[in-house]
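ok trying this again, last paste got cut off
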Amino acid sequence: MTRQKYVWLLLCLLLTIGLAAGCGGNNGNGGAAGNGGGAENGGAGGGNGNGEQAPEDISGEITVLTQRTDIVDAVFREQYVPRFNEKYPNITVNFEAITDYEGQVKIRMNTQDYGDVLLIPNAVLPQDLPTFFEPLGSVEELSEKYLFVDERQYDGTSYGIPITVNANGIVYNRKVFEEAGVTDLPMTPDAFLDAMRAIKDNTDAVPLYTNYAAGWPLTQWEPSRTAIAGDPEFVNYELVRDPEPFQREKPHGVIYGLMYDLASEGLIESDPTTTDWETSKTMMANGEIGAMVLGSWAITQIQEQAEDPADIAYMPFPYTSEDGTIYSTSGGDYKQAVNVNSDNKEAALAWLYWFADESGYATAEGGISPLKGEPMPDTLASFDELGVELISEKPASEGEIGWIDQIDQQSEVGLLQPNFKQRLIEAAIGNRNESLEEIFADLNERWGQAVQEVTGGS
């Protein structure tokens, strides 16, 4: 399929979503409640995994692992569980909120004790999904109801449903931008650098906060690779064959060149090693930070702490294609899955599908619902004003599924890990004696070797 045709199909999907929003009837939006959506989980791709079994006949005690340490009590326990138990009265739901989710869960997966329901860690390779997770059904069937179930699939079977669908870009504080004299949103890397310089010169705010110490926020830069390429085939068809992707004019060079330039000019926090994620949200809400590179999921978390939520807005990654198009990469967030070793799989599946269909988590968090046909969130209204087009990665072709992950792991580059991003920042602020060019050369050498080993030069 050509790039143009694939983008056209994606835009048709988004148009369908918009039309559905206009004639969708009563979906019961009330607070954290309500995407509505398949209360009985009927139809293709739905189902609670229990056939015709009545909800009250399903029983058991399950543990759900989550990364949402901030809302596990106020939302998950106090709001979701009572609503879930109205439908499933005989299921007891416990939660384990984990701050270092990726690190801790990967360790626990060396045992069978990693909860009953969990978010699939990024490091799990496609071929390993059947070892750790319960199959949910075919990608073809699940795709009739849910978005991006192909992102965690192996051999045509899906193992996870996104907790939300994200656009990727930058959260920013409108008041800080206005105080700095930035009246137009920057849509190129150079314009963004100018905006950050203006914030540094004209305000007391930190221009861009990297959250270096937390580590994982640095991985939020990576998804914009597809938006910069402007090509759905970039990751699974081009990147897997490119022996030198870290060059200034290529997507990864654009992303991480900008990261390096921001740090080298002192446009980030003064001591990156002491940053704190939870504190950074409050700082941005209070106008002490100008911008942070994060998925759209972060918008509402920061708005909730702002005196005026309208101060917190969202913009695409600052890059404009040659034809004038501005893209934002969209894709599934963490995929919720069921532990293949769970003793209460029916109860675990009941929670998984209820969360996707009825919790309202995605829209309450400012994200795009994983349910097809749901409206776009108000938090992305600025995308319409800018004419931003959402773009998503085209899945790998048969026989090449998992190549990108294999290359990434064999090379130890870590596209979705913080390591080389922290290395770039350390070099930029003078804590490491190496240049951007030297770091890129090292990454290219390791990536190129892994490309040859995995693809065989095909």
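PB: full thing came through this time. Confidence is low (pLDDT under 50) at residues 1-49.
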